Predict the 3D structure of the following.
Amino acid sequence: MPDPSSRAEDTAPTRLEAVRGDITRQSVDVIVNAANSSLLGGGGVDGAIHRAGGPEILAECRELRAGALREGLPTGDAVATTAGRLPARWVVHTVGPVYAVRTDRRPLLESAYRRSIEVSAGLGARSIAFPAVSAGVYGWPPDDSARLAVTAVRAALAAGPSSVELVRFVLFSDEMHELFAAELSRP
Ligand code: AR6
């Protein structure tokens, strides 16, 4: 007998957590990649994901570029592929903005987090691992990166019920981990 008190609207709120580690080792439904618009690979977390996941991921990215994403993936958008050999079901590739002092690119970075969650939820994913998008080669300042990521993810999850039960930020350094953990501990 299903428990009559467990209705969809009673589902527990999504858990948010921060861990220090390598995102390619995370056993989750979705690993988010901080990619570039070409989707054809790069350094940083992008390089690590393609190296660990194997050629299947790049093959699917090439197919996307030959079809629906002929112009590339716009900054702030997200798209899913296989996770290849990674311990995940999908990689969701997103493109964060390059940090710039003079123009406000925060909406694009917020959009990268939001679209990643929307695409993941569209797949029925229950767990998502995020790196600190734009915080490496793209130069986003670490403290603002943590604040914006946590705020954007909370806002996206608040938009309505979804399949997502866990969002894990996976940070490569102690400094970033501390910043994200501090941000998550704020009410
Ligand atoms: N696990 C978790 N975090 C990582 C890992 C890893 N294995 N490797 C790096 N990081 P970046 P961006 C952290 O530069 O700034 C690529 O070439 C890293 O320390 O990977 O969005 C793409 O192709 C940093 O905190 O991404 C694009 O051209 C964070 O991940 C460009 O870089 C993001 O750093 C995207 O730049």
